[in-house]
């Protein structure tokens, strides 16, 4: 039986582009892959609270720098190799600046046109998570 884990994935948008973060060799899963701001939901924590914590930790942006645009439906991502079912809670935030500071979890970042997301080697189903929160056709 697979282990089930709830995580948040936040997409940060600035002037129509979204932020992708490349995971470092210091994280436990999906090293080198591209992702949004993500992290485990702990205990009875609200997903939105965890999303804001992860944004602050991973980019140094404060709550005042971000505005929630959309909350997506949780997405089930099955990783048979790891024996994990990820329950991904996606969010889209508009941010006030493209100046960020990465923490140890990521080695680089890129601002991309959302239509280019499928061109990157991402964590599983990142494109589907983005589809849950995009706010244009």
N-C termini distance: 38 Å
Q: Would you count the extended β strands for me?
A: 8
Mean pLDDT: 92
Helix/strand/pairing category: alpha+beta
Strand content: 35-45%
**Contiguous runs where pLDDT drops below 50 for at least 5 residues:** none
Cα shape: globular
What is the CA-atom radius of gyration, in angstroms? 14 Å
Q: State the order of secondary-structure elements, H for helix, E for strand.
A: EEEEHEEEEH
Quickly name the level 1 CATH class: Alpha Beta
* CATH-defined superfamily: Nucleoside Triphosphate Pyrophosphohydrolase
Helix content: 10-25%
For the record, the CATH architecture stands as Alpha-Beta Complex
CATH overall fold name: Nucleoside Triphosphate Pyrophosphohydrolase
Walk me through the structure.
- The chain is 15% helix and 40% strand.
- The chain contains two helices and eight strands, in the order ββββαββββα.
- It has a single domain (3-133), classed as Alpha-Beta Complex (Nucleoside Triphosphate Pyrophosphohydrolase).
- The model has no long low-confidence stretch (mean pLDDT 92).
- It is α+β, with helices and mostly antiparallel strands and 137 residues long.
- It is globular, with a radius of gyration of 14 Å.
- Strands 1, 2, 3, 4, 5, 6, 7 and 8 form an eight-stranded mixed β-sheet that branches.
Quick take:
By secondary structure, this protein is of the alpha+beta class. 15% of the residues lie in helices and 40% in strands.
